[in-house]
Amino acid sequence: MPNRHGADRVGGTPAQGDPYGVVHGFPHRATVHASLTALHRHLSPAELRRYATSVPAAAVALGPGEELRTGVRRVAAALVRHLRLPEARLVVRFRRMEHAASVRPATGPEYAVELNDRFRTRRADIGAALAHEITHLLLHRLGLEFPGTAANEILTDVATTYLGAGWLLLDAYRQDGTEGQQLGYLTPEEFGYVLALRSARFGEDPSPWFTSAVAYEAWVHGRAEAARERRQPPLAGASWTARRRYGGERRLGRAAPGAPYAFDGGAPATHVTFSCPVCRRRLRLPAGRALRARCPLCGEVLECAA
């Protein structure tokens, strides 16, 4: 596999008022959703359940007295095992480089791990950088890749997070009053959003793992966004106001601009199309009655007031 970009701070226009130039919000929503769908297409529900337990913090943290290269090899090996890649010898070196890290298969069986020199003194973030890069290896084995570097890096961050190692990337987001840092290509809130989808799917609460207060705040914002999507029509959990608006649009046979659903079949509409809140696959259901539907891709059972 060719070298990829490492897990560096996301680019783009800083959010107004952010002193560290960190992008906030959900600017990559469409690519995040496409990544979730692609991941569910390439891994069956049974295969995804093999990642139901996140990589534990103790497995990916370097001890205060641990020799650096030995610690990096141990952390990388833990991530290789977590992501269910073939185990092999790990060769580690540090060098000056534009990005945070790279990992690639080398001659042998072995993996060549390269880390930015700055991680000699930023040991706490080595696991986060390696998680992103080792996920690239997994996606390569799955044959899962998006066209274009930016979309492919977002796909990698989504996969890293949904498969139980991306909480490290979110926790690497810090602001300490004098310095700020963000690793990865998603915004902090987007990391929190994907983490919330994973949490809802596998019943896992990541909140105790955060060492960064701002990372925890981003997780809370992402969780709120995921919950908001669960309350949109035609899902039965929608608010009374949203259901009333949805009913009026259905009778007219057309959805308002920006609505998360679309109608067809005349006025009143006979069918509604919307995205599964788990895998974001588009679903088409009969409109005008309550029903229960199972997503054919991820298997989620949805209560709908369609």
Secondary structure layout:
Blueprint: H1 29-42, H2 45-49, H3 68-82, E1 89-95, E2 101-106, E3 110-116, H4 126-142, H5 149-162, H6 167-171, E4 174-175, E5 180-181, H7 188-202, H8 213-230, H9 240-252, E6 261-264, E7 271-275, E8 282-286, E9 290-294, E10 301-305
Parallel strand pairs: 1-3
Antiparallel strand pairs: 2-3, 4-5, 6-7, 7-8, 9-10
Helix pairs in contact: 1-5, 3-4, 4-5, 5-7, 7-8
How would you sum up this structure, described in words?
The chain has 9 helices and 10 strands. It has helices at residues 29-42, 45-49, 68-82, 126-142, 149-162, 167-171, 188-202, 213-230, 240-252, and strands at residues 89-95, 101-106, 110-116, 174-175, 180-181, 261-264, 271-275, 282-286, 290-294, 301-305. The strands form 4 sheets. A 3-stranded mixed sheet has the order 1-3-2. A 3-stranded antiparallel sheet has the order 6-7-8, with no helix packed on it. Strand 7 (271-275) and strand 8 (282-286) form a beta hairpin. It is elongated, with a radius of gyration of 21 Å.
Task: Report a brief summary of the structure.
It is built from nine helices and ten strands. It has 306 residues and is α+β, with helices and mostly antiparallel strands.
Provide the descriptors you would attach to this structure in a database record.
single chain; 306 residues; alpha+beta; three-stranded mixed sheet; three-stranded antiparallel sheet; 9 helices; 38% helix; elongated; disordered N terminus
